[in-house]
Design a protein that fits this description.
2 domains, six-stranded antiparallel β-sheet, alpha+beta
Length: 234
């Protein structure tokens, strides 16, 4: 192969010229750097072999910008943290733990307001009251007694109750008692039912007035029509 004189008079071969051009093409800092030749060449020498590879320019740009930001030095644990200077009117107000008030039937009776407060007065003074009762058709009768407990649904607990009501002379309803049950299959109860004595008084041909005395009674609020105090002989 023929020798070719170089610019300084030194003779170089064509292979050396090709090698020189290739080195310039794959040199990242050279003016003759050729990216396409660098991609296909196996003689590329990376400036930083341990550099982190990126998938695209956006990832490199993000990493590059992040490196420009100043890193905040972590404070040691022994160094005391700065405390904010509070003004007297900015200081936190000490709070007391609120104790939840227990609620039951007795506390609710004490807190009753409106018409229920009148029931509380009758209960505390043990004033006899008269309760007008109803059935599915209209007014059934009334009950008199002393109130011992109530709730917001007008359910009443009474003691010393005298119940008076009216019913038709020919009633279809009967009460089954233990005395009426005489069967070997159903054994008698140890304490048979002993209902109060019912006094009957005929008001008209088809109406009978019944009266009975009960020591204690619980009346549902849906049967209450009217409540008023019994004062003196009224």
């Amino acid at each position: 192969m023929a020798d070719v004189p170089g610019p300084s008079g030194v003779k170089t071969t064509k292979n050396e010229e090709k090698d020189t051009k290739l080195e310039d093409a794959i040199d990242f800092y050279s003016e003759h750097f050729d990216p396409l030749v660098t991609l296909y060449s196996n003689q590329v020498k990376l400036p930083k072999p341990n550099a982190k590879p990126f998938d695209n320019l956006a990832m490199w740009n993000s990493h590059y910008r992040r490196g420009e930001t100043k890193k905040v030095e972590k404070k040691s644990k022994d160094q005391p943290l700065p405390q904010r200077r509070w003004l007297p009117h900015q200081l936190p107000i000490p709070s007391k733990k609120q104790t939840r008030k227990e609620k039951n039937i007795f506390t609710r009776m004490d807190d009753a307001q409106g018409p229920l407060s009148l029931l509380r007065k009758y209960m505390q003074e043990k004033t006899p009251i008269k309760v007008i009762t109803r059935n599915d058709k209209g007014v059934r009768g009334y009950c008199t007694g002393v109130l011992i407990a109530f709730d917001k649904h007008w359910n009443l607990a009474l003691t010393g109750v005298v119940e008076v009501w009216r019913r038709p002379a020919k009633s279809k309803y009967t009460v089954l008692l233990d005395k009426d049950v005489e069967s070997e299959e159903v054994p008698p109860r140890p304490h048979p039912i002993s209902p109060p004595v019912i006094e009957k008084k005929k008001i008209s041909k088809n109406v009978i007035e019944c009266r009975q005395t009960v020591s204690q009674m619980i009346m549902r609020g849906e049967h209450v029509v009217l409540i008023h105090a019994v004062l003196g002989n009224t």
